[in-house]
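Notes from hallway chat w/ T.B., transcribed later so I don't forget. T.B. wanted the structure written out for a chain they're using in a teaching module, and asked if we could keep both sequence and structure tokens in one place. Agreed to drop them here.
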Amino acid sequence: MVSPVLFAQVAWDEGVCIATAATLSSALYALLTVLALASLLSSTLKSLSSHGKTRSTIADRRFTVPKQRFRDFYIVGFVTCAVVSLGGDVAATASNRIVFTLVLLHLARRYHECAHVHRSTSSSRMHVAGYALGILHYLCLPFVLVTTKDVTGVTPGDESNHCDFLFILGCIFFQYQQHRHHLLLAKLRAHDRSASDPEYSIPIGGWFRFVSCPHYFAEIMIYFTLAKLGADDDENAAMMIRLHDAGPQGELVRNILSALNLKKRWFLLVWVATNLSISAYHTHEWYRRRFRSYPAERKRLLPLIW
């Protein structure tokens, strides 16, 4: 059995702190993905994770916070990303600088939208468990998006290609599209009070012509471009976990931790895609129940597909 002392060596050996945090964050995102899928079968898990209009209006308001507290997620994420990006163990690669710039732009924009664009009502709430989960997600976020130096302090290869430029443009494009569709939602809430529901109406304009949740689709694509931008650096970097006198069991643990670390961005992407796909499903069904005239040809998340 691998002793706690061994894990202490892994966690605090010189130059491996961020890599260890990334590994643990990957494991967390894998667990959250499983729990998100389980929420499709469990009303309790659904209640803990739902928010806003998809949360039952008769749900117990105890242990809930206003949906406006979403802005806290982006404050936590921005501060954590800024601090981690300045760490001495972070590789000074172009992809690291680009990824963190794009992430900070995304987080700052999302805070602005929560504070000045979104028009949540006092009845729009989320469970404290969902709130804590959001804080945890953004605390872990920078650790899976950063590439670290190896144990010798060497920076992995810093090569760029035309695909990187396309992913940068893609990230900016999808950030713009998400902002655009958040503005469309806010304008509906602000001006249209003629619908059968006093607070909501059918979204129109932009990609709402094709899907119910284009802002979710845009966010998934933002994370996809961020994952692709740093993936090559992760493959080139040496795995920074050393297990001393661990035997066969230690070798197995090292292989598992290596996989979690090297594929950390994809664990994050799968978690985000799963979570937002489930949210899109519930949002689409809510619209269909609420509005009899809801466009039948409109899909949930992926145009013409689902």
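Follow-up for T.B.: The first strand starts at residue 64 and ends at 66. Might be a good example for the class.
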